[in-house]
Amino acid sequence: MIEIQRGSSNQNKMKSIIFSTLFIQTYSIIVPSKDCFQVNTIYNRGQSIAQKAAAGPFECQEWCQLVRRCTHFSFASVSQTCYLRHGDRSEPKFGVVSGPKHCPPSLINQVQAKPVCNGNLCLGGSTSRNSGNVMVDNKPVCDDDWGLEDAAVACRQLGFPGVERATKESEFGTVSSTFSMDNVKCHGNETDLKDCYHKAADDCDGNEGAGVVCSMAALEIPDECKEDDQICLLGGKNGAGNVYYGGEPVCHNGWDFPDANVVCRALGYSGASNFTIRSHFGLSSTHFSLSNVNCRGDENSLAECPHDVKREGCEADTVAGVVCLGSSMEKVASVWKNLEITLGVSFAVLVLLIAVGSAVVWKIRNRKLAFLQKTSSVLPRISFKNPIIRNAETQDINDQPRMNI
Prior knowledge:
By secondary structure, the protein is α+β, with helices and mostly antiparallel strands. Helices cover 30% and strands 21% of the residues.
């Protein structure tokens, strides 16, 4: 009996070894990209965020994508166990498939853009020339405190005329966990990203890479608009446009009629007829001056209104705008408004005429019906019995002989 158990145990071990070998070979075939999944490699050994049983590396990656702290994963094919990792320090481990939280886009049928660099600053991870994760000295920049001012400096250093958007959370692909800069804080007028305040040490992971989307064309801002406290309207016509303060756009967060009234009166108009948001008069190509402006409406300048200097959530398509009273746009709007009123009145009159006509027709029909009913009530009754025939029948009865009984 003992001999049988030992034999059975040896057979199970042999089956397990054969199964594991086949299993690993199978996954080495279905791994879609060597740049995405690494075979016989383990990340951050002994530092698992969480673990559970999984059917394969694809399911393991999907689980990693649901956990924010997870940046990489390792899947042990023998034990069928998925390990979530916070980092990508790799070392060889037979039978383990590892990979990032998100695989980079497939390069099949795509043309990989040549990285844009200027000195030690480059953009990486994107197929577009004007966008990507920011790399300094071949290391990523952490997205802590990363904003449009910092992105504007990076785009300017790379030779682009402006900036559209600052990106966070490794939008253009997972980056290395070793960063070059953290907590970058630029004023926006620097010529080199390293001139901005920053920290060399970091507490970031591969899912926190800072990036940019640079603009390919810049909006021309007149020099007089760049003076301190100067308000200009750009992108529109006389008395209408996006609001620029000191040469920089005003963010539309909290923007409404009182703010627009202050701008229009500061420009010599009697007030505002409307306000706009979402860069109605065109995208901006630089960082913002003000956000969350909250005027009462009687101030003489935007500087007197409560506002934020932090411009969170402000991008190229979030510029505030105005349409002032007496502007060319306001006149066009008034023409359309008058046309709408005229069409509305004409339609109302037409509906009224149709209703009156229907009422008259209905009344005439009712009168005819009433007249017919009245006429039928006064007509004499006509008898259809023939009196001549009736008298003849009476005479025949009288002429019959009477029988005496």
